[in-house]
Amino acid sequence: MRGSITKKNGRLYVIYYVGKKQKWEKVPDNKHGRQTKSDAQKLLAQRINEVNSGTYREIKKTTFREFAERWLRDYVDDPNHIKASTAESYHQIFNAHLMPRFGDHWLSNITADEVQKFVAALSRRGLSPKTIRNCLAPMNTMFRHAARWGYLKASPMPDVELPKTTKTEMGF
Q: Per-residue pLDDT tens for 110-147?
């Protein structure tokens, strides 16, 4: 298996082959906001290993809005998967909170950092921790399905810190 690293317009790319098809993949920025040659070498080695071992999976490109509409239609609205009342609340959460924030983003570009900023924004708007957790629950499930259905390599949600809820004891 062969591959290479190239720089184009100031960005690093790895080039590798899947069968006879050439693939270009942009090297993501590291935690310091830049690309390094060692990051590119690691990514190239990872992709070549995936191709050689047969675990390589091409990610389908779609926006958050397109995938969310498909997921809501094919999974949430199916009465065999989710109760009608839960489906209704999922639709409300997507329309009120998630679509305005993530609708036009590429699904594969949504990171844990972006979701964490969304959590902070909801908190600043005065929403309770329980409400914020309720907003993230359908998003978490949707991202897991996106990974299963070939739209993501992995869900960004496990790296998101959820706000702590406090349990209040009832007085009798």
A: 999 999 999 999 999 999 999 999 999 999 999 999 99
Query: How far apart (Å, rounded) are the C-alpha atoms in residues 12 and 39?
Result: 10
- Report the Cα 95 to chain-centroid distance in Å: 18
* Exposed e or buried b per residue across 133-158, where buried means at least 16 C-beta atoms within 10 angstroms of its C-beta: bebbbbbbbbbebbbeeebbeebbbe
Residues 6+ apart with CB under 8 A from 26: 11, 12, 13
Q: Would you give the DSSP letter of residue 127?
A: -
Beta bridge partners of 8: 11
Distances in Å between the Cα of 103 and the Cα atoms of 39, 51, 76, 84, 158 are: 30, 32, 18, 24, 21
Give the ranges where 94-128 is alpha helix by DSSP (H).
99-102, 112-124
The contacts found for 10-13 with CB under 8 angstroms, 24 or more apart, are 11/35, 12/37, 12/39, 12/40, 13/40
- What's the farthest any 2 CA atoms get from each other in the chain? 72
| pLDDT of 108 above 70 | yes
Look up residue 49 and give its two tokens: 């290993």
Whole-number pLDDT of residue 124: 93
